[in-house]
Structures are given as C-alpha cells and as structure tokens.
UniProtKB/TrEMBL annotation:
Keywords: Membrane, Transmembrane, Transmembrane helix. This is Zinc metallopeptidase. The keyword rRNA-binding does not apply. The chain crosses the membrane at residues 116-139, 146-164, 200-220. InterPro entries: Zn_peptidase_2 (IPR007395). Pfam families: Zn_peptidase_2.
Length: 228
C-alpha cells in the first residue's frame, strides 16, 4: 500500500493538474483574437504549404481539444473552435498539428519511431482494463506472477511510447511557434498566448509518461515481492 501511495497517487495529482492547466490556458487564450484574423485552418494550411505539403486534408471534427494529425491517412483534424477560430489558442493548436505534418514530410526520426510503436501500443492499451482491475491483484502470486508479468510488459510498452511522444510533441510546438511568426500570421508579442497554450498542453504528455513510469515501477516492485 505504501508503494502505491508513493508511486501512483502523485501521478493522479499530476494528471489532474495538467488537465486543469491546459484547459485553463486554452480557455483563456481562445478568447483572445489574433490581429491578423486568420483562421486555424488557414494557419495550418500556410504552415504545410511552406513545407511543400499539398496532399494533407484539413477537416473539422467535433469536440474540444480533439485536434490531431493522422499520418497514415494524411489527415489533419481540427476541433470546431480551432478550425474556424482566429484566436491565439486556435492558431497555436492548428500550427502545432501542422508541425506534425511537417515532421512526417521531412521524416523526423522520433515520429517514425512513434508510428512504428502504434500497433504494439494498441495491443498493450487494449489489455489495460484487465491489468488495472484484473485478477492479478488477488491471484497474482498464486498463479506464479503471470498477470504481473503481463502488466509489466504492457506498461513497459506504454512507458516507451509516452517517452518517444515527448520529443515529437515538443518539436511540433517549436515548429509551430517559429512558423507562425516567420509567415507573418502572428506578431512576436502575440506568441505569449501561443506559448502558454502549447506549454500547458505539453504537461499532459509529461503527465502521461510519469503515470506510465509510476505504474511500471509499482508492478515491478510487486513482481519482485512475489518472488521473495
């Protein structure tokens, strides 16, 4: 129980804080219009066209902060506020997703590694409900630790995936900030809102990595105890 409190409880707190931080920053700067009155869709298109990308569809998807880039189908999805919006938050998020498209175009190594891990990560993620609430908590030691071993394998994959995700996301944000200014979409002084929004979003990826690492260490400690 002590190891659970030390390793897992802080990750819940960090995740809750990170989610609140990104929603607070986004909620604030989605209300701040950019001077250029350019929409998120237009900003994403400008960033991609500068990189010579003309074969990626930009589509609108429902929800808030549901924005993502799909490298398999070459599809950049923006939530309604970011697709049509002209706010600092909308432009930052849209340019960030376009940054992923640029990574794909130039063959950014960490994005390649992340894409390569997706199949095995999906398998590990599908096993998570059984690992989190499965019988190993009760019968793990009696069954030779098989459920614990599966849990360790799954969280090892998830931790590696979240670790690789960090440089991918940081690099996309760096590209976004650079291109928004170089293309004249935002003034240097307007980057404050973009920085706050994207830096807050980055904490959610850090929290995901820390959470996976915490569970991995916790399960490893349980596995070690079951062998004693």
């Amino acid at each position: 129980m002590l190891s659970f409190i030390i390793l897992i409880v802080p990750t819940f707190i960090l995740a809750f804080w990170a989610q609140n931080k990104v929603r607070s920053a986004y909620g604030k700067y989605v209300q701040v219009p950019s001077r250029g009155n350019i929409t998120g869709r237009e900003a994403a298109m400008a960033v991609m066209q500068k990189a010579g990308i003309y074969d990626v569809d930009i589509v609108q998807v429902p929800g808030e902060l549901t924005d993502h880039y799909d490298p398999v189908n070459k599809r950049l999805a923006l939530s309604e506020h970011n697709y049509n919006g002209t706010s600092l938050a909308a432009l930052g998020v849209a340019a960030h997703e376009a940054g992923h498209a640029v990574q794909h175009k130039v063959g950014y190594s960490m994005l390649k590694a992340r894409m390569a891990m997706i199949p095995v990560t999906n398998i590990a993620a599908s096993l998570m409900p059984f690992i989190m609430f499965g019988p190993f908590f009760i019968f793990g030691a009696a069954m030779g630790g098989i459920f614990l071993k599966i849990g360790v394998a799954c969280y090892l994959v998830m931790t590696a995936f979240h670790l690789i995700t960090l440089p991918v996301e940081f690099d996309a944000s760096r590209r976004a900030k650079q291109e928004l200014v170089s293309l004249g979409i935002l003034g240097q002084d307007e980057l404050v809102g973009v920085n706050k929004t994207l830096d807050a979003a980055a904490w959610t990826y850090v929290a995901a990595f820390v959470s996976s690492l915490g569970y991995l260490i916790y399960l490893l400690s349980m596995l070690g105890s079951s062998r004693d």
